[in-house]
TrEMBL record, chain A:
RagB/SusD domain residues: 330-409
InterPro entries membership: SusD-like_N (IPR033985), SusD_RagB_dom (IPR012944), TPR-like_helical_dom_sf (IPR011990)
Xref: CDD domains: SusD
UniProtKB keywords: Cell outer membrane, Membrane, Signal
SusD-like N-terminal domain sequence ranges: 19-218
Name of the protein in its database record: RagB/SusD family nutrient uptake outer membrane protein
Database matches in PROSITE patterns: PROKAR_LIPOPROTEIN
From TrEMBL, chain B:
Family in the record: Belongs to the TonB-dependent receptor family.
Coiled-coil spans in chain: none
Organism encoding this protein: Chitinophaga rhizophila
Domain TonB-dependent receptor plug: 145-265
Protein name as it appears in the record: TonB-dependent receptor
Signal peptide as annotated in the record: 1-35
Pfam family, one: CarbopepD_reg_2
PROSITE patterns found in the cross-reference section: TONB_DEPENDENT_REC_3
UniProt entry tagged with the keyword Magnesium: no
Amino acid sequence: MKLFIRILPIVYLLTSCSDFLDVAPKDAVSDETTINDKASAQTAVRGIYRQLGDDDYYGALFQTIGYLSGDNIQWTGSQSVIQQFISHAVKGDNANVATVWSGIYATINRANQVIDKLPAVNDATLSADEKNALLGEAYFIRALAYFDLARTWGGVQLVVKAATNISDTKGLQRSTLEQTYAQVLKDLQTAEPLLPETTNRYRATRKTVWALLARFYLYQGNWTQAEASASRLITDSRYRLIKPYSAFFANNVVATEESILEIAYSANNTNAHRGYWQPPANNGTRQWAPNDAFIALINNPLIGGNRSSAVAITNQGLWYGNFYYRSPATDPAYILRIAEQYLIRAEARAHQGNLEGALQDLDAVRDRAGLTGSTAVSANEILLAIEHERRLEFAFEPHRWYDLVRTKRAAAVLGLTDEKRYVMPIPAIELSADDALEPNPGY
Amino acid sequence: MSIFDQAQYPVMRRLARNAGFLLIPAVLGSPGVHASITTSPPLPAFTDRFPADIPVKGKVTDSNGQQLPGVSVVVKGSKRGALTRIDGSFELSAPPDAILIFTYLGYKSQEVKISSTSQLRVQLETDDKKLSEVVVVGYGIQERRNLTSSVSTINTSETKNIPVAGFDAQLQGKAAGLQINSNTGVPGDGVFVRVRGTTSINAGNDPLYVVDGVFVNNTSLQSVSTGGRATSPIADINPGDIASIEVLKDASATAIYGSRGANGVVIVTTKRGNYSQKTKVNVNASHGIATAPELWDLTTGAEHAALINEYWINTGIDNPASNQTFANRPFRPVSEGGRGLPEEQQTYDRLGKLFRTGQLSNYDLSLNGGSDKTKFYIGAGYTKQEANIRPVFFERASLKLNIDHRISDRVQVGVSNGITRSYRNQARAGDGPQGGLLQSALHTPTYLPETNPDGTPARWAGFDNLQVLLDNYDVNTVSLRYIGNLYAEAEILPDLKFRTSWSADYNNYDESEYWNDKTQLGAAPTYGLATSSITQNSTWINEQTLSYRKQLGQGHTLGAVAGNTIQQNTLKRTFAQGTGFPNNSYEDISSASNRTSGQTWTQATLASFFSRLDYNYNSKYYLEVSFRADGSSRFGSNHRWGYFPAVGAAWRLKEEQFLKDVRLFSDLKLRASYGITGNQSGINDFAARGLWTGASGYPDSETGGDKPATAPLQLSNPDLRWEKTKQANIGLDAVFLDGRLTLEVNVYSKKTSDVLLQLPVPSNTGYSTYYSNAGEISNKGYEVAVRSENIKRSNFTWNTSFSISGNRNRVEKLPVPITQYNRDWIRMQQGYAMYSFWMYKQLSVDPKTGNAIFEDVNGDGSITVADRQIVGNALPKFFGGINNSFSWKSFDASVQFNFQYGNKVLNLNRFFGEGGGTRDANRILFASQLKRWQKEGDLTDVPRLTKAGNNYTLEQNSRFIENGSFLRLQALTVGYTLPKALTSRWNIDALRIYFAGNNLWLLTKYTGPDPEANVTASQTVQGIDLGTPPQSRMLQFGLNVTL
């Protein structure tokens, strides 16, 4: 009997083990029950934006590919991987390239989750308009993500369904650049009618779609469409070039009228971008800094104008970019600004022979920077003036590199004649994990 | 007393000297003796007395004539017996023709026929101590000679005075097959420990630590950044309380721990009292110093400046567009707008400010003793160890209380309690610029002054100002730890024992940081940064065992253990951060204007059943089988249970006729074992599930702020299952020359399959890794341990012990190479060892151009990522230690050397320090940079200084991989025991004074100060030296007093 009592716990355990071994997390849910009502649809869409603004995407690293690879920035930190962008000698094992690639695909996955699951949600409190708007936002962000992949790497694998199994994308081949851009356009055209024609600088609306369409058509050389799309924003009184240049970023402002879409940050969700730019005295690492040539340009009152407010100098005499500077680090990530729409339309007009209109748009941006009108006369001169203007206007945003590649000016400006270098290498880590993925030639 | 009571065994070890309690020869499997003597000597009467019995008296001594108390005297063929008294005498009654059997632990048993004189004089010969010692094994104890498995026992008396915080670090060089490296000079930090190689990638690789039956947590609870390193939970255990340490290595020994045995098991037994023993007081006090060994050789300010100018001009030549010329070189006269000429530069010594002579102090006080029913051990300890860099130190106060009580002859209960408070003054001694202490001192160029022209502290190169850090560092941690066990055991039938125990390991880990506005992290516009993190780790374990041991007659001995255990582990963390403090007088987060917080919770459970059967015939043939089943909450329901069998066999050739009389051999045994063990530690508790998580929030509009968000976290893997390690072991134990020479040899082969890893998957899935079972890893190796008593005279002894182990690790199968650490310097790849360095191989520097020439592996004419290759790994080919100990009259001395051969180290400090000037004012230049190529014909491996090309912009340059082999004088101790005649006047039993030196000398080709350094606590990274302080040289004086 005594023995029996002592053995009893063992017997008891045998029967109750399966309960004992069932431990569920407290802060996560099974992925089958994620988007099933209004609230869960809203939280999932917000999650896409947060990833869009992650350090690996618009938070910082994606942006760096766009500006480090230009001609404005020098490497001043400890990570010589940065120098690879500046020297246009990026290698397939460049960690930043790999991080950005996976960050963009993570964004696509979050959008795909919403696109896949939201249509089936049946919640009386979720109106059709609200549902459409959430869906439209997901389509818009997916378009933006594929646009960024295309302009950075060329044609990529198009994943338009959320993975439910780790081998779902096995064997998927890269699409061509044209197919990738076609997907971008398709998503934008799907998003446009779904979204309301409202103004929201933190979230995508129909107007945001137009702004990205303008950029998209510019990259395609579709000047009429580019002009038409940009005009829709420029003529909208909710967007304007606010003066001076620093008015849209200095003094901790957010969501100014300059902004069409920016990613918001908060004390809880900070933006790491400032840390790379700011000097140690301001709590940063100054991993890179404006180079001497650029400092000379931006500090020239006839060229940089009041845009010189975007740079500053330490008491040790070192220049640094001061576009991202806040503490806590809540600097917005600017994705679409009205200044870009002016310059898009200027370029589209110049290409269409509307030189006067082009100059008007160009001078609008120059005027805001405190500069007099451009002296350019011919179409070529105007295009060159626009290029110069963009170099300064978007010095710390992801444009310069893409502009020089897009306009086939990289050889002339950067001395980079090897066209294989106009796209980034497919990350080595992705190539080893995915047999179907083809590397970019020359890497 | 049961055979599975790990906590009890030191008592047994000493039992011979403490006559009283029941004994175990039968339990231990000695043939022919099965005494069950349960009363104090002498036994007055026997109920089965025969009329013809005669009284027998006698005296037992050792070969030196020393009286032996507590020797068991049994009448052969009966249950009658007695124990000798304190003077070695005994008396009992026996038939006139009876044979008496004398047994005593550590001595050869002897049979004596009763002679007519009835006054017996018996001299017992010592047996080989090593083979007859009792070792703790899983859920039991065994005599070493009866082992079928491979178990190393550590002599803690040799290790306990090594001034490191955790006992794990003390074991370096002490056991074959146990590779230990101290990666940093920060006391209380984690230590690299591997038993027979690295078996896993993302599941744990550390051995299982069992302290008094409690499976203790060995995963650091640290959450604040100290530059990559992490604290050691093992440091919460005071080595002074430890009686013995056993390392179980092969499958036969570890499979009874099933899912937790794959990386070996370290069983720690703490000290306990003895029944019927006068209370003994022990005091151990020591004090010492810790200094840094030889540090890095840096350029002077003038040298640095000249190199920068050279780099500047060369870059201008290579890339005219950069407009870098002699005229605008950085170090040109101040009047020309430069930083001054090179020769005008000062040299500032920062290392000298950081490194110091640290103080070491250690005090242990213990009491132990017992009545006939209750025994106790009380241990109090205090230790403080200052690192060789300011302001880092480790401090521990501990209290240990172990009590055992006999309720009756059959029932015993007991407790083990250990309470510790470990306080750490921490600093970022590793990677990372902000707050990085060693980087700030080492990586700031020497020409840069410590203050600005206006007298304020200067910050350079992304680093904090060193003096500001030293004056304001405020990062500290308090770890409160309770490890305890409560057991009851009962002999429910003769030969059948039941034991139940409850154990707890509770750790409250309280971390806080305060970075005031003088430091970079807290500087304006942050205005002070404070964090607080409280982590609670609690484990409870319940365990039942039944054990049975029976002499079946005619030499057959059978033992069995069966039991179950259930365990639950909960990890909970609450953290808060504040920025924006009114001023530096306010340090609590409540005063911060911006506050954020968070919370995490995770839990895992494990249920297990285990059993072991062992059998031996005449102590000649041994067979042991064990089996364990484990159910884990971590795995998908398809694969929740894992089954782990093992079998071991041994053959003691010495017991065979043909060796019985060969005097050369005192013992000779062959062993073989095979079994399967598992691994599930280290992976996320919910790794198998498909999950979404509460993501960081995002606003809906320009007003209203962040609203909650969700995001996919991981895809489910219902097939996630145990990692399994199959291990075969063949061993030989030989004892020669009456125990003067002992040899143990093992060869083993381990193969781990279903390796748990976060497999890199194509990012287009939306995930970058996926928990899965993929890959295979093998470890094959040998271990040789030799002990010899070279000289054994009454006033002079000299003993030597030596061990050497080699292990070959290989990733046999891996679907995708996995890179590790920043800039993927380390890569795991099929066909290569873990911790392999993946580099561009620099073949030479072209004497004509000064450019580095890299191997173009694929011959395509350019250096691309396809040309990266594995150029060695951080694992040694072999390692070991040699110890010599001497005693001469009242003096004793011991010398321990450790060695390691064939491991490579990536010298990242040198990587930064030989940056060719490309980092200009952002990094130090080492003196080795001066060897750069300057002109045609120069023969060097340091390329021409330039930013162009690959000379200095390929970060994975094999030039920085160095040979990390070393020979270290690990410990040197000299002690003197005062004459008894003197000390007994003060009522002191023994008084010993000693001097101990540690890490006194190092022989290595490695150019950094410490080839064992490693920057991170990550188990997938080893052999990267960046920013960690080297291990200290330590000198101590101490005193041992026994009252």
